[in-house]
Every structure is written in structure tokens, then in C-alpha cells.
Amino acid sequence: MIKREQDNTQIVMEKAIIRHRVAIAGRVMNAQTQQAIAGAQITLSEIPDKYRSILKLKAMQYRAESWEKMRPDRTYADQDGYYFFRNLPVGDYTLVASFPKAGTRYGSATQSVTVVAGSETSGVIHVDLCLSPTGVQGKITAPENEKFIAKVRIQGQNEYALTNGDGEYLLTGVEASSQEVTLVISASGYELNLSPELYPPKISLLQGQVLTEQNFHLKRKAVTNGISTSANRSPP
Fold first, then answer.
1. How many other CB atoms sit within 10 Å of the CB of residue 151?
2. Is residue 12 packed enough to be buried (19+ CB in 10 Å), middle (13-18) or exposed (0-12)?
3. 2-131 and 135-229 share one fold
4. pTM of the complete model
5. What are the mean pLDDT values of the chain's consecutive 10-residue runs (236 residues total)?
6. Most buried of the four, 40, 137, 163, 169, by CB within 10 Å?
């Protein structure tokens, strides 16, 4: 009798594990830097009819406001960028990752997967999703290969990037804009070597795209009576 009760208990426990089995799991990352994007939203935008019926039945048990906060077809990446979905029946699914809280700083990513018979109990489908950031990339050079560190930012925004030892920079996670924005480049003792009609440099930033080949050359600031002067003054 005791053995039979133990066997029954084991069966119940195994069924409980299966019912809560992770079916799809992965990580959301920045497509440029491969860094985790904590708080990214992952939604099952397309689902099989069976799962749609399950969701309708579950939704009837909650108020609309509560349901929106706990619905199982939507989840958020944790602090390390990881996410998962449980208890998915067999069928085709489409995952959409986005980061609404970041405004226009990232685009979205879409991936289709199929949960097949047996995968609900025997394995996890791994799907990593990479969000393309909004940003700008390029290289800054100085006369005679002089060593410098330049700071690159968008006028009116807080994010910035510093050049590396080769003068390369990558500024991502900035807000997109329907109008041209001003690129501000500053380096101690230098100014941009641009003609007045091209200064300050203007660029267009589209959501989820990195504008490349934004290369600039620096020149030494002129010094008058021990005071550094500049015809190309950086905007505030």
C-alpha cells in the first residue's frame, strides 16, 4: 500500500513538472554590443488555435487590468536578459521582442518557431533575440596620428561614447528623430576640421538603425596670447 501511494505521488509530481515545463527560452541582447537588455518585452504575436482557446479561458478568470499584467503570452527579460515561456501546446509561434520603455532607442526583433510533439516534455527551444539599437558609428583622426580621446554625443541627449585607441567610436541607445540632429564631438585641444557650411555636423537617426561611416578629422585649436580659440565652437 505504501509503495503504491509513493508511485502515485511520483506520477503526480512528474505530471506537475510537465505542466510547468519551459517550452521556449532565450536571451534578449543588443545586436551591436551583445549586452543583455533587461526589461525587454517578448510577446507571442502569432499562436496556434489551441493556445488561443486556452488564453481565452484563462482571461475569463481575471479582470482585464489584472490579466494584462499576468497574461502568459507576454513576458519580460530579467536583469541578465533571459526570458522563457511555459506550457505551450504544439504549433507555430511568432515571438516579437521590443523595448517600449526605451522609446525609439531600439528596434524590434521577430522570430518564428515551432513547438513539436514531445518538445513540451523533452526539451527547450532556445531562441535568442537581438534588438538593433539606434545609433551612430565612425572614426575620428588627428594630425600626424596624434593620440587623443574624443567624446561623441547627440546634442540634447545624455548618452555619449568615447573613442578607442584607433579613434573609433560607437554611440548606441540614443533617441531616433524625424529631423536631423547635431552630432557633438569634443576633444581637449582639438576642434573639428570642417568648413563653416558643414559645421556643426548634422545626421539623421532612424529607429533601430546604426548610421555608419560618420568619420571626422580633427585639427589643433589655434592659440592666441596663450588662450585657445576656435572657429568651430561645439554647440551646448
1. 16
2. exposed
3. yes
4. 0.75
5. 47 42 90 94 95 92 85 95 92 96 95 79 83 96 90 95 95 93 94 87 94 94 58 46
6. 40
